[in-house]
Write a structure and sequence with these properties.
This protein is mainly alpha-helical and 117 residues long. 54% of the residues lie in helices and 5% in strands. It has one domain. It has a two-stranded antiparallel ribbon. A hairpin with a 5-residue loop joins strand 1 and strand 2 (110-112).
C-alpha cells in the first residue's frame, strides 16, 4: 500500500483524466503554430488556452508544483515562445502529478491511488 502522501481524490483524478488529452493536443498544436516564436498569440487563443490552464490549476491545487503555474497574460498578449515555455511548466507539473498518484494496484492493474479504494 502506498503512503498516504501519494493518495489523491477521485475528483482530482477525474479532473486530470478530463483535461490531460485536451492539454496534450493544445500543447502540440501550439508548438506547431509557434515555429516563429516571436509571433504574438491572438486574444482568442489566449482565452482558449487559459480555460484549459485554469482546469489544470484546479486539479493540481495543493501539489508542490502548483506555485509555478502561471496563466497567460491576456492584457499583454504573449509571444508563442513565452506561451510554449509556460505550457512546458504545466506539462512537467502534470507528469509529476500522475507519477506521484497513479500506478500499479494490488490487483496488478494501473489506476489512481485513491484513499478508501
Amino acid at each position: 500500500m502506498m503512503a498516504s502522501k501519494y493518495f489523491t481524490t477521485a475528483e482530482k483524478a477525474s479532473a486530470y483524466d478530463a483535461v490531460a488529452g485536451v492539454f496534450a493536443e493544445l500543447f502540440k498544436e501550439l508548438k506547431e503554430l509557434g515555429r516563429k516564436p516571436e509571433t504574438t498569440l491572438s486574444r482568442a487563443k489566449v482565452g482558449v488556452i487559459n480555460r484549459v490552464l485554469a482546469d489544470i490549476q484546479a486539479c493540481l491545487d495543493g501539489e508542490p508544483e502548483h506555485k509555478y503555474l502561471d496563466m497567460l497574460d491576456d492584457d499583454t498578449l504573449p509571444q508563442y515562445g513565452d506561451a510554449i515555455l509556460i505550457l512546458s511548466q504545466y506539462e512537467g507539473a502534470m507528469t509529476a502529478f500522475k507519477s506521484r498518484h497513479y500506478g500499479y494496484q494490488a490487483d496488478h492493474s494501473m489506476d489512481w491511488y485513491i484513499k478508501g479504494r
